[in-house]
Amino acid sequence: MNTTSITSIIEVSGLSRKFDSKLALNNITLKVPRGRVFGLVGGNGAGKTTLIKHILGLLKAETGSVRVFGFDPVADPVKVLGRIGYLSENRDLPAWMRVDELLRYTQAFYPKWDMAFAEELRHQFGLDPSAKIKNLSRGENAKAGLLIALAYRPELLLLDEPSSGLDPVVRRDILEAILRTVADEGRTAFFSSHLLDEVERVADDVAMMFAGQVVLSGTLDDIKENHHRLIFRFDAPQSITPQVPGALSIAGSGNEWTVICNGSRQAAIAGVARAGGRVVADDTPSLDEIFVARAGTKHI
Amino acid sequence: MQLHINTGDGVPIYLQIANQVKYLVASRRLAPGDEIPAIRVLAHQLLVNPNTVARAYLELESAGVVVKRHGSGTYISDAGSPLARKERLKILSQRVDALLAEARHMQVEPDELLKLIKDRQQSLQSPDKQ
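The joint structure predicted for all components is written out below.
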């Protein structure tokens, strides 16, 4: 089977998952196109890691299906896992090994392991080959995990909260690795994050999860273009929150109110005009603001 | 070419890049014929997606600010950018708006402000009389 013709590297459809009575994933459908950076965003407990575990075949789909490179990762782990460079949230590396031992040990699993590239990365990341994994700092540990995920030049780089708890220098290394993966050979990167400014910098496509559901997905450009941040001013202070058609969130007090809305900006402006308000600013919100506005509406 | 990306204020990154290049051209910090970095180089420098830089360059190209030379690179257009004057005025308008707001706040009438501008210009032209 010629898998290079497949345009979606990951294809999840109608995936649901229950843990005891709690619905962890609720009818998830998403496609990750080849050669792009895909950012999965959502708060803690939104279901991001559970979704990633399904993509890796660590969890079996109860309802719906998961295909990676066109294969079922549970039925065909060899065809899937050997082509994924994975960095887990916990970065569970063998603590007793030295850095050079970790490289040789990991090399044994991957025929396409590139030792020259691994050495280049080790230099770039400033990792001492004789250092014990257990003695590495949090940042060095993340870099070691990233190194072994990158060194066999996987077709899919899959990173679960790679920046979590790391300093800006290490975060930069991680973002560079994501961009280089995609820029160099048209490979694909999929990463989850709650740092929305990072996602806004590097992602082509974004899916936003909330309480086990994908509440928004699309290209970052489309998402930005379809959301608006409007600031309204009323001549008289408003004692109650004004009603704005199509608003995802409204914040403010007195004379000035900020609205994040989706789709029809005209309807929102007309609605406020009827209540006696006028637009004083009309901009594009950041991904962070969109996320907070979206998460707010799904809270109830 | 030094650009700064801010993800906090919501302005799409490709627009931030395009606007800043236009600003650099308008303020003469980039001159006609200057080469601007390759897409991958700038993407790496700014730590943003290369597609985003490509979109910014496309925007600049269609606005006539830059030209692509086949197999060579991207350069500030020789025309000195047809947008440059308009952009320069736009930049100045923002400054004037801020100045007007400040003058109003300090209860200085626009006529008085205009006179002040003329006075200042004269003293700049003949600095010894300052």
